[in-house]
Design goal:
heterodimer, A: mainly alpha, four-stranded mixed sheet, two-stranded antiparallel ribbon, globular, B: 104 residues, mainly alpha, 0% strand
Chain lengths: 675, 104
């Protein structure tokens, strides 16, 4: 009874944590696109918008949104399969609605997905309980409910967390079937397996993993000392039924659109599917090819929905295109195989790492208390496969959330350390002593203590950064304030803190932003925030600005107006006094336009992803000296502002002084460009 | 450890899924961790976060304190019960629980 109450309390806490973020966090960079795709799917019944993400979460989250009757703007819709028109439809949806309507629609959509997370948490709890006992199950639930990654992504309409939760559900159902095969359990396992790829394309590997796990489950236990005679052998025909049911459910999720289309009739973009030949389809104005066209393989009907296949192709194409990636302060034209391992090392709370270390120790040394390798194989094989799969895609590395699917499976596996709380102490002590091989009286109490400390550390560290859990970095990385030194993009700044910036501005009515640079697809104008960008630093080669300055100066050497204009150009370059708000991704961007903000100290942070700066004249000149730019004076700053506004005749500074400034600036910029 | 206490300890172990001492330890650990977490993460970056942090520390401190007081009260109560039981057994002429001289 008490255990049930605690389980319910933990799940309710989990739901509340996600619900609050769902209400307060601004739509992140991809959420407007998801929202547009969601509404478009409900309006038109088509799956082509944002087709790299399967439709299950859209179907669920779209219902409350459509019932709220938001405005739509489909003018940016494109029929071209790889136009990725969600990039335009998302902002258009945001612009078509008021701030309040946007907030309401996104909150409803996010909340509608929370039951999936609760289901995943509950099934993980049951899974852990059946494998390792009641205390282990409770430990899993604590880790699940307070994992910052699960909480932050569970509060969005991005399908990652939902997919991870359904992964737990599907594996639990499959494991139950493996242990006690029956037709009813097989049908449930098939249904759950079919839902998996409807949340994320990565789960297509489940169609290979499930039969592989079945095969391994059949393997005789050659290495084990005790032959598991009571082990039931799940029949092959039931496995076949699972796969057939799953395939049917997958196709049903797409309303059987394009199911059975011959492989040769697709237009692929990825090199692996189109081959080396690239043709242009004049009808759809899209390039593509098909390495299977004209071969016997091309005549084979594909038992998958067409948009699902196209989505895989587009995703593959994205990974084949090398994109600049960021890791530990370095930009590289492609990713790293160890990116996700590194991200896990610093994004997962150290308390969880301690539990993982203890679980590893119990696996290797606790022979008498560990579970059958078959049970653990069901957990670890999919988790490791996902980790290996995403790590092998090194075309670009931007998002550690790609390994989110594997996390809950590791959580269940490591929950085995909770067994130190089950049973009588003496029994456990004997088991440990028999396993470890030496007698240590204190081994069980010490393990219990370590587990409690690790859990407290996990909960404390995670809640400490809440509700900005998306930017969570553990203490090893220096916390979220040092996160950008390690990772960027959705690991720290996905545009989620814009509403906190608005709140901060409301709380500080005396502050007027002179410039804003926001990383996201949500529109500043919808919230009444200024859209003027902050002044950019000169480009590293300095060519553009130099040409402007020289041209302006040479037109009329003695003309006051031209000198003023040239001075205005120079004073437009680089830091200027004023209040600015910038996203972390913009400050650390590969384009060094706003890199100089790294030399300034923010006066406030709204969340961990938007920094607010109050640049004084001294600050500006300090940075300008470092950039070899002419310093600003009160007068020149005012005159530059006047020149920009066309009021050049009223400036207080003489033309000769300005010309001197122009010359020195040109020299300085030349010098900088050479270095 | 008296028989009474051993019996109690055995009951604790049998229902050791979520022992109260573990919850109390967790609470105090959280209180001790708070300054370290503040040092690492810096001040709160939003009002929401300030409320959550304050709530966490307050909840942990209050919970730890309440559990400690409850444990002390329970311990005192058990000692009283044990001493009463021993006194009763002594007045009957026996030496303790399960070791009655009158039994063969």
């Amino acid at each position: 009874m008490l255990r049930g109450l605690i389980t319910a309390a933990l799940l309710i806490t989990n739901a509340l944590l996600m619900a609050w973020i769902g209400w307060t966090a601004c739509p992140n960079r991809t959420e407007p696109g998801h929202m547009a795709a969601t509404v478009y799917l409900w309006d038109h019944g088509q799956f082509d918008v944002f087709h790299v993400n399967p439709p299950l979460t859209r179907l669920v989250s779209g219902l409350p949104v459509v019932l709220s009757h938001p405005n739509r703007d489909w003018s940016w819709y494109s029929e071209r399969p790889r136009a990725r028109c969600e990039e335009m439809l998302g902002p258009a949806f945001v612009m078509a609605n008021s701030s309040a309507m946007n907030r309401w629609c996104f909150a409803l959509a996010r909340w509608s997905l929370i039951p999936f997370l609760l289901l995943g948490g509950y099934c993980g709890y049951r899974f852990s309980r059946e494998l390792y006992g009641p205390s282990a199950a409770m430990l899993f639930l604590v880790v699940w409910c307070f994992s910052p990654t699960m909480v932050s992504w569970g509060a969005t309409i991005c399908p990652d967390a939902v997919s991870a939760a359904l992964g737990v559900v599907a594996l639990y159902a499959f494991h139950r079937w493996l242990r006690m095969p029956s037709w009813s359990r097989a049908s449930v396992a098939g249904l759950c397996l079919g839902l998996l790829p409807l949340t994320k394309l990565t789960w297509i590997i489940a169609f290979g993993l499930w039969p592989l796990m079945w095969l391994l489950w059949q393997t005789p236990d050659w290495l084990g000392k005790v032959v598991e005679r009571s082990l039931l052998r799940p029949p092959l025909r039931q496995l076949a039924a699972i796969l057939v049911v799953a395939l049917y459910v997958l196709n049903m999720g797409y309303l059987f659109n394009g199911t059975g289309r011959p492989l040769g009739q697709y237009q692929f973009m990825s090199h692996v599917l189109r081959g080396s030949e690239l043709t242009t389809n004049m009808e759809t104005r899209s390039g593509g090819g098909n390495r299977f066209a004209g071969t016997w393989l091309g005549r084979i009907p594909v038992p998958l929905p067409a948009e699902f296949v196209q989505g895989i192709d587009t995703q593959r194409h994205d990974f084949e295109r090398t994109m600049w990636s960021y890791l530990r302060g370095q930009w590289a034209p492609r990713g790293w195989w160890y990116y996700y391992l590194y991200a896990l090392a610093i994004k997962v709370p150290l308390g969880i790492w301690c539990l993982a270390a203890m679980a590893t120790m119990m696996t290797f040394f606790g022979r008498e208390i560990k579970k059958s390798w078959r049970d653990e194989m069901v957990l670890l094989l999919p988790a490791v496969s996902i980790l290996v799969l995403v790590s092998s895609q090194t075309g670009f590395n931007h998002h550690s959330r790609y390994v989110l699917l594997a996390l809950p499976l590791f959580f269940i596996w490591m929950s085995k350390v909770g067994r130190v709380f089950d049973g009588r102490r003496e029994q456990l002590k004997e088991a440990f002593q028999a396993s470890v091989g030496y007698r240590r009286r204190r081994v069980v109490p010490a393990l219990r203590l370590a587990v409690i400390l690790a859990l407290a550390w996990l909960v404390g560290s995670s809640v400490w950064t809440y509700p900005h859990s998306l930017s969570y970095f553990n203490e090893l990385a220096g916390g979220p304030t040092c996160g950008a030194e390690h990772l960027l993009d959705s690991n720290i700044d996905w545009g989620q803190d814009l509403w906190y910036l608005k709140q901060w501005l409301n709380d500080h009515p005396g502050v007027t932003l002179a410039g804003t640079r926001y990383y996201g697809q949500y529109r500043l104008a919808v919230e009444g925030l200024p859209t003027t960008p902050p002044p950019a630093a000169p480009e590293p080669n300095g060519e553009t600005h130099l040409v402007d300055v020289r041209e302006t100066s040479s037109r009329s050497k003695n003309g006051a107006a031209s000198a003023d204009a040239a001075a205005a150009i120079l004073s437009d370059i680089g830091p200027k006094p004023g209040w600015y708000a910038l996203s972390v991704n913009k400050i650390h961007s590969r384009n060094p336009k706003y890199e100089y903000f790294q030399w300034l100290k923010p006066v406030a942070m709204t969340g961990y992803s938007i920094y607010v700066y109050n640049v004084t004249l001294d600050d500006a000149n300090h940075v300008r000296r470092r950039l070899n730019l002419p310093e600003l004076t009160e007068e020149s700053h005012v005159s530059a502002a006047s020149a920009r506004s066309g009021n050049v005749r009223n400036r207080p500074m003489s033309a000769s002084v300005q010309n001197e400034n122009v010359k020195s600036a040109s020299l300085s910029l030349d010098g900088r460009s050479r270095t | 450890m008296s028989d009474c206490e051993k019996e109690q300890s055995g009951r604790d172990d049998a229902s050791a899924g979520i022992p109260l001492w573990a919850v109390e330890l967790g609470c105090w650990t959280m209180v001790v961790l708070a300054p370290f977490l503040y040092w690492i993460n810096g001040p709160a970056v939003s009002t929401d976060q300030l409320v959550v942090r304050s709530g966490l520390v307050g909840f942990a401190f209050g919970g730890g304190l309440a559990l400690r007081l409850a444990a002390l009260a329970r311990s005192a109560f058990q000692k009283d019960e044990c001493s009463v039981a021993i006194a009763e057994v002594s007045s009957d002429g026996s030496t303790g629980v399960g070791f009655d001289k009158s039994e063969p």
